[in-house]
Amino acid sequence: MNDAHIQVRNLNVAYSQNPALKNINLDIPREQIVVIVGPSGCGKTTLLKSFNRFLELVDGAHVSGQVLLDGVNIYDPAVDVTEIRKRVGLLAQRPYPLPMSIYDNVAYGLRIHGIKTKLDMDAVVQHYLEVAGLWDEVKDRLHTPATRLSVGQQQRLCLARGLAVEPEVLLGDEPASALDPISARHIEQRLLELKQNYTIVLVTHILRQAKRLADYVIFMYLGELVECGPAHEVFEHPKEALTRAYLAGAF
Amino acid sequence: MKRRHIEESIFKALMIGSSGLVVGSLGLILLTVIAKGAPALNLAMFTQTPKGGYYLGKEGGILNAIVGSLYLAGGGTALALLLSLPITLYLGSYVRRRSRWAPIVRLALDVLWGIPSIVYGAFGFTIMAALSIRASLLGGILVLALLELPIMTRAMDEVIRMMPSELEQAALALGATRLETTLHIVTRQTLPGLTTAILLAFGRGIGDAASVLFTAGYTDRIPTSLFQPAASLPLAVFFQLGTPFPEVQQRGYAAALILTVLILLVSLGSRWLSARLGRYAIR
Fold this sequence. Notes:
The structure holds two protein chains of two kinds. By secondary structure, chain A is α/β, with parallel strands linked by helices. Chain A contains ten helices and ten strands.
């Protein structure tokens, strides 16, 4: 069996004629933390959003090529987009809890995917709040509005919410960038634990964070994939001059 | 330097003056209506229909107009909501922001908003005449729905456009469909604003005289079917103030007072309700 969880083949993305990704070919290894780095506007987030078909929400975005999830092209018209998004979760840059209670935030995804019994629900909600490292802080106020939590707690709630629908892949769009240092460390810690069971793809522009987390690195520049490979290789022996320049802080 | 300070105080005075004028006129209107209407207010006004005709009668109450107005505005608002909500949700979450269709719909709504209510009344009257339907509760409800629709829709539209798109994306990222996102997340997040929009439209509908003049008619009785004419508070004010008898005129002011208090209650109610419904909203 191929060890690549996601395979990108000849992916091109343009925003109203302006190319954002140029002919990307890439294999995302299974159950590792893959970090996409590169300067602003290089297409990191675009690449990330191509993995859960979020580019469809962007006006004027045009996608061609293939993204294969376990060998199945997610852009195939026969594929159900909600099924893809259930399998590929997203942790956004800033936490946006749903306008409901803490409990319901975690339960929402389960409800729309058809899990209904109360007993299961309670156990599942508790489990994922524990996984996200939030349970002890919220167990006495599960039914209060999620907005009462701090931003750092909200991001962990969003993590629990995303995990509750049992995805295989977790995308993170600079998920710690809006958080204070302690909360950011908290999220990083969770991600390191989660890579046992999930394929994690992160976008970051913080090189130090990338070095802390990455098993596999993708370096992008101006919409092109410059270099990718295991983290220690890319960070310590970059092959491309552009990568060396970026790692040296030239951008 | 001195000149700039003078400028500052002139404009400050202007701003405070204008704001004061608004509050002042509300106070003055309330005072007038209370001073003129309160003496004629008694329990019978709320519990009885007019005795001796609405135009000349000095006895009985205006229950016909109170109930008629609630029927008319309630029905009109419900009907308007039935159309308004789908339009709003369609504009807000289904149509892409760059679509050419959405601005056309919004322009149509803005123009409809600007059309005077007497024109709606005349329009309704023409259609009813062509179909040989007489002035009735149903006619009034239909025309009020038409009158309220643009107000409600545009108010709701603005509320939904204020919503951060990331919130919608949060639900979509979990694998929710567009409809689920719209019904569970968008409506819940914007519920306080939507409620305000509904009550705003209700307030406009219940206070409007011109649109129901030809279409709902006027009667001393409380309508028991959609095909009977219905009285309304604005017309109760209009007819009773038009009589030469001071006692009846005073009853007109009493009707105006009741109408004003009703609208005030709706206004305060909407504030209270949106504060309550906003408990879970993301700010």
